[in-house]
């Protein structure tokens, strides 16, 4: 617990948690997010019960982009790719991307279906912790191959790091190895600000160092008062209720090629997932991004 609190002091991230009004650097709004997106995993129970109704509610809140995932019914929720696209579109939602699982027909079949309806990305959501850094080099080769497949179909391939790529293996950070060993013309990354911060890394430094490698992101906040390690999503909270200065980070992202911004949260307090989705988008609607 003590070590996880200490990262705020030791990594220079305290500046990212300062209230906007208390420093002149963060006062002048430069731009706004181009669109508000949400990862459907956040509302998976609602989607399983009533996909049309859930999408309609998300659209009414003001979300205009969605990212799907490899649910039990697949990334198109038991529908054809075209039917799901139409269902989302009827609620004013564009299906930008999806996390994928291994499915019959392999990765290329999924890429074909995604490209057919104009999706921009297929994203690997998980590889898990590994005992050797060489495994991450193997993953990088796999990502490059998948990137070639996506490119052939007019799409992009991405990888979504969780916490484990920010934990050293053989003296190296897997995230650095993956960035170094993937082709920037084939593989993009989807930063999860929550995991980057809670693992003691500086998301702004990564964004600036690697430029437009981070084209997508997941957004949730980190509690000021940290919860015990290993509790479920131990320190996640709604946007604006924690330490992350999104006014600054999102402006940095936009200035460095980040295009897609998805709310994604899997720990809730008194809110239902849909209520939490509303709290998050209301925060983003009011957020004035800092001038970088």
TrEMBL record:
InterPro entries: IolE/XylAMocC-like, TAT_signal, Xyl_isomerase-like_sf, Xyl_isomerase-like_TIM-brl. Keywords: Isomerase. GO terms for molecular function: isomerase activity. The keyword Isomerase applies. Residues 107-286 form the Xylose isomerase-like TIM barrel domain. It holds the Pfam family AP_endonuc_2. PANTHER family: HYDROXYPYRUVATE ISOMERASE (PTHR12110), INOSOSE DEHYDRATASE (PTHR12110:SF41). This is Sugar phosphate isomerase/epimerase. It comes from Mucilaginibacter ginsenosidivorans. The lineage of its organism: Bacteria, Pseudomonadati, Bacteroidota, Sphingobacteriia, Sphingobacteriales.
């Amino acid at each position: 617990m003590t070590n996880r609190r200490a990262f705020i002091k030791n990594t220079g991230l305290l500046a990212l948690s300062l209230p906007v009004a208390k420093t002149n650097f963060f006062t002048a709004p430069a731009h706004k997010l181009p669109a508000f997106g949400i990862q459907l995993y956040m509302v998976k129970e609602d989607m399983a019960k009533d996909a049309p109704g859930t999408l309609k509610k998300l659209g009414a809140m003001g979300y205009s982009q969605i990212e799907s995932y490899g649910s039990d019914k697949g990334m198109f929720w038991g529908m054809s790719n075209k039917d799901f696209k139409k269902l989302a579109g009827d609620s004013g939602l564009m299906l930008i991307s999806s996390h994928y699982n291994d499915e019959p027909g392999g990765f290329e079949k999924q890429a074909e279906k995604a490209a057919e309806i104009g999706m921009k990305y297929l994203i690997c959501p998980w590889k898990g912790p590994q005992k050797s850094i060489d495994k991450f080099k193997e993953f990088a080769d796999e990502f490059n191959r998948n990137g070639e497949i996506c490119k052939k179909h007019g799409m992009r391939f991405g990888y979504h790091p969780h916490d484990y790529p920010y934990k050293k293996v053989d003296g190296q950070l897997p995230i650095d190895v993956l960035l170094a060993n993937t082709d920037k013309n084939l593989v993009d990354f989807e930063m999860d600000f929550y995991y980057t911060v809670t693992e003691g890394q500086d998301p702004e430094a990564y964004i600036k160092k690697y430029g437009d490698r981070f084209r997508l992101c997941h957004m949730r906040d980190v509690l000021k008062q940290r919860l015990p390690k290993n509790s479920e999503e131990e320190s996640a909270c709604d946007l604006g209720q924690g330490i992350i200065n999104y006014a600054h980070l999102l402006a940095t992202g936009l200035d460095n090629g980040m295009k897609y911004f998805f709310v994604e949260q899997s720990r809730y307090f008194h809110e239902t997932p849909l209520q939490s989705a509303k709290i998050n988008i209301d925060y983003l609607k009011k957020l004035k991004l800092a001038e970088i």
